[in-house]
Amino acid sequence: MSQFLIRTLAALVVVVILMVQASRVPTHSSRRRAFGLGAAAFVMFAIGNGMSAFGLGGQANMVTSMIGAMLIGISLLTLTRAYQGGEMNDKMRRAREMVAEERARTQERLRRKHEEER
User: Fold this and answer.
1) How far from 27 is each of 20, 24, 55, 117, CA to CA, in Å?
2) What burial class does residue 17 get, using C-beta atoms within 10 Å of its C-beta: 0-12 exposed, 13-18 middle, 19+ buried?
3) Taking 90 as the threshold, does the pLDDT of residue 75 lie above it?
4) Is the dihedral angle over the CA atoms 86, 89, 91, 95 positive or is it negative?
5) Closest by alpha carbon to 77, among 99, 85, 8, 95?
């Protein structure tokens, strides 16, 4: 199997993963746009690698790669904007709670272990 064909298939798998992620977030959110833009970027990468797999490419391949790279950059900026805008506050709050719970359990285990050693 051609190296370019493997890259094409890998890019398409990433497209599917990003589209599933996009479908799980609320409509009209910056995160949804970010995932969609990321998926579009990987579609461009898949097109470029597919063209190379079939012996096409050259200038067109360079253009698709540049467009894909720009879309990735815009996607990351959009995701950062969503984070700063508070769209992920619930997830961040839950992550902080989980860390605090685990920290409390660890401290309790250490305290018990220390008492047993006495």
Assistant:
1) 13, 9, 40, 56
2) middle
3) yes
4) positive
5) 85
* Residue entry with tokens 């900026």: 77
Boundaries of domain holding 50: 3-87
Cα 86 to its chain centre, rounded Å, is 18
Q: Do 20 and 57 sit in the same domain of this protein?
A: yes
Question: pLDDT tens digit string along 9-66?
Answer: 999 999 999 999 999 888 888 889 999 999 999 999 999 988 888 888 788 888 999 9
Higher pLDDT, 113 or 103: 103
Whether residues 32 and 70 fall in one domain: yes
